[in-house]
Specification:
Layout: H1 40-49, H2 52-63, H3 67-80, E1 88-94, H4 100-112, E2 118-123, H5 126-129, E3 150-152, H6 161-177, E4 182-188, H7 192-198, E5 203-209, H8 215-218, H9 221-226, E6 229-233, H10 240-255, E7 267-270, H11 279-296, H12 298-324, H13 327-342, H14 347-363
Parallel strand pairs: 1-4, 1-5, 2-3, 2-4, 5-6, 6-7
Bound molecules: guanosine-5'-diphosphate.
């Protein structure tokens, strides 16, 4: 081979022809074509056709905090609105360990046995605080997660509880437009999040456990008042009697509450999600309620009230964001807070000063 070092000058040295090195990139690797951005019309068309991939991508936009995503998301939601509303929306709440995932798995299969499609959404305030979500893991619902007619979406994690809840409500619209006629909204029973879920569902189901005999003490009155049905889970084996006792305690406690606006007296049932006992009765109760409130007009009334609620919530949230994200306000906040803590300024004067600055700025 021709090479300067192969001349007679360099004895004992032969330079061989090298071999071409293979590419370090696998030739079989197909370059993924960059996904073309979908237009609003394409999103809407895909969703209305029931395409779950398009639906998931739209939900991702809804959840995104980027303004350019929000613009598209809002347009998609608006165009999907006429196709939405045709579902029953069930809120399911209970403390961690109450058996929500186990129950939703069997509830889901139960409602799907009649046909239709089910979307399971979640509102999980813990995902915001700890970044770890209690309700985030899809595999918690083993059977449902592989069911072809189900769509499970973990809780959106960005922003305040109000923000998270708003995104879930918007996702409901998209799911309904995609033909999901049953919507479950799951939440951890730890306070505020129930109010948010209650404000977007037709039936609010509270899952309770029989415990130490003083069940009622741990549960906040407000949450009980919200419930359209209370169910005591794990009514199986040794626990059956305690579950029945807990149910009767809840029943008598409910008697003390005024009749809800729906005209429906909340019922208390026992069941076992794990052993699939009493699940049919729970759903018969829910379907009875839906028939009852559809007949007396409360179904429509509640949905209208919810729409109004979300309008005001949305205004409140945007005003709050606009205020707290304002640069001048952010700097001044610290200063005023210190003033209040040192006792130089009352809380009200501090708030007034800050709001004055904010509103003056708006007028400029
Ligand atoms: P979540 O935190 O509310 O979602 O609760 P899980 O569904 O994860 O259930 C918590 C634990 O309770 C798990 O170990 C379940 O197996 C168990 N569990 C759930 N439902 C039942 C039931 O009906 N009976 C019994 N005995 N155990 C149950």
């Amino acid at each position: 081979m021709e090479h300067p070092e192969n001349s007679g000058e360099y004895k004992g040295l032969i330079v061989n022809q090298g071999i071409e090195q293979p590419s370090s990139v696998s030739p079989y690797l197909k370059r993924k074509p960059k996904r073309r951005k979908r237009s609003v019309a394409e999103f809407v068309e895909g969703i209305v056709k029931g395409d779950v991939t398009v639906l998931s991508q739209a939900v991702t936009l809804v959840e995104s905090v980027k303004p350019e995503h929000q613009i598209i998301a809002q347009e998609v939601i608006e165009k999907c609105l006429p196709y939405s509303g045709n579902s029953i929306r069930i809120g399911i709440s209970g403390v961690p360990g109450a058996g929500k995932s186990t129950s939703i798995d069997v509830f889901g299969l139960h409602v799907l046995a009649k046909g239709g499609k089910l979307a399971v959404l979640a509102i999980d305030p813990s995902s915001e605080r700890s970044k770890g979500s209690i309700l985030g893991d899809k595999t918690r619902m083993e059977k449902l997660s592989v069911h072809p007619k189900s769509f499970i979406r973990p809780s959106p994690s960005a922003g305040s509880l109000g923000g998270v809840a708003r995104k879930t409500r918007e996702t409901i619209v998209l799911c309904e437009a995609a033909g999901f006629d049953k919507i479950f909204v799951e939440t951890v029973g730890v306070g505020q999040s129930e109010t948010a879920v209650h404000s977007m569902v037709d039936f609010f189901l509270l899952i309770q456990l029989a415990g130490t005999g003083d069940e009622l003490q741990g549960i906040k009155r407000g949450i009980m008042e919200m419930a359209d049905g209370i169910v005591i889970n794990k009514a199986d084996g040794d626990n059956l009697d305690r579950a029945k006792l807990a149910a009767s305690q809840f029943r008598s406690a409910l008697h003390l509450f005024p009749m809800p606006d729906s005209g429906w007296t909340p019922q208390v049932l026992t069941y076992s999600g794990f052993y699939n006992i009493g699940v049919k009765e729970v759903w018969d109760m829910i379907y009875n309620y839906i028939d009852f409130v559809k007949d007396n007009g409360y179904f429509e009334y509640r949905r209208n009230e919810q729409s109004k609620y979300w309008m005001y919530e949305s205004i409140n949230e945007q005003l709050r964001d606009s205020f707290y994200q304002d640069q001048r306000i952010q700097t001044l906040l610290q200063e005023k807070e210190q003033g209040v803590l040192r006792g130089n300024l009352t809380s009200f004067a501090a708030a007034k000063d800050l709001l004055d600055v904010y509103f003056r700025q708006l007028r400029q």
